[in-house]
Specification:
This is ATPase BadF/BadG/BcrA/BcrD type domain-containing protein. With about 300 residues, the protein is of the alpha/beta class. The protein has 13 helices and ten strands.
Length: about 300
């Protein structure tokens, strides 16, 4: 009787299911459509089920299968129990089933099931911390209530900074002059960009972080200052985790998301504001969290006996 692990990363754009053997080696994968339960519950659950079904075609009836599903929007929907039950009924071969959000899935994979801190800063942002049996989350409330230090937040701060020059009637700085020029807007018509802001989607606002990053790479001091401000916002959230979980220096620290992965200025500034950390740079496939999750659960049970 062989043990196998099935990890599913059901995100906003696609669902990826990967079957692993007892040593954590990939055996098979299935890619389906989006798995965000908030966007369309029926379609998301169907995509997840299709991905699981394809992977289970590769196993035998005597295999012991443990499933970990990381699903976008599952916390907000408050339907993890219903989804778990439906999967157990549809796939009785599954011996263990757990459902978490996709951000926590990424944390488990990046830390390989160990205690530590995990920061995500892409279009949005969230910070996770895990110590022993306690998991904490800070942030992740969306662009209206949070997402500090994210790409959206950087774009928002860019537009917000322009309002200072509009209100004070002072000449715009070289940084904002470059911003106006890139948008094809004169200084006298700067208010046009504020009106434009309210027509943009969340993703479109976030894309302005790329423009700021490009100027920072060319050593524009104002762009660098804005990116360091993003780092301070993220550091503030990390420190909440450190204090609440009483982490000591040299804790494991991992990260993901374009703001931290593609902006060395932000990552360096963030690390400067934290105590000594053990930085994990290895990129680990999120679905492999299933292996580390159930191995940790097994070890925890052994320790409690």
């Amino acid at each position: 009787m062989a043990s196998k692990f099935l990890g599913v990363d059901a995100g906003a754009t696609k669902t990826r299911a990967v079957l692993y053997d007892a040593a954590g080696v990939m055996l098979y994968e299935s890619i389906q459509g989006h798995g965000n339960i908030i966007v369309n519950e029926a379609i998301a659950i169907q995509n997840v089920a299709n991905a699981i079904a394809q992977c289970l075609e590769q196993v035998s009836e005597t295999d012991q299968i443990s499933l970990l599903l990381g699903m976008a929007g599952i916390e907000i929907s408050n339907k993890s129990k219903q989804v778990k039950r439906s999967l157990e009924i549809k796939f009785p071969i599954l011996q263990q089933v757990a459902i978490i959000n996709d951000g926590y899935l990424g944390m488990i994979a990046a830390l390989k099931g160990r205690d530590g801190v995990f920061v995500i800063s892409g279009t949005g942002s969230v910070v996770y911390g895990q110590k022993q049996n306690t998991l904490l989350r800070v942030g992740g409330y969306g662009h209206l209530l949070g997402d500090e230090g994210s790409a959206y937040w950087i774009g928002y701060e860019l537009f917000k900074g322009l309002t200072y020059f509009i209100d004070t009637k002072q000449p715009v700085s070289p940084f904002y002059q470059a911003f106006l020029t890139s948008e094809g807007v004169s200084e006298a018509s700067a208010s046009d960009l504020i009106r434009k802001f309210y027509t943009l989607t969340k993703q479109e606002v976030a894309e302005y972080a790329l423009w700021v990053s490009h100027l920072a790479e060319n050593e524009n001091s104002e762009a660098i200052r804005l990116l360091k401000k993003a780092a301070r916002a993220l550091a503030k959230q990390v420190k909440l985790i450190l204090n609440r979980l009483d982490f000591t220096p040299n804790f494991l620290f991992a990260f993901s998301g374009s703001v931290l992965v593609k902006n060395p200025v932000v990552l360096a500034a963030l690390l400067e504001q934290l105590p000594d950390v053990t930085l994990l740079k290895e990129v680990v496939e999120p679905t492999k969290a299933v292996y580390y999750y159930w191995m940790r659960e097994e070890n925890r049970c052994l320790q409690l006996v």
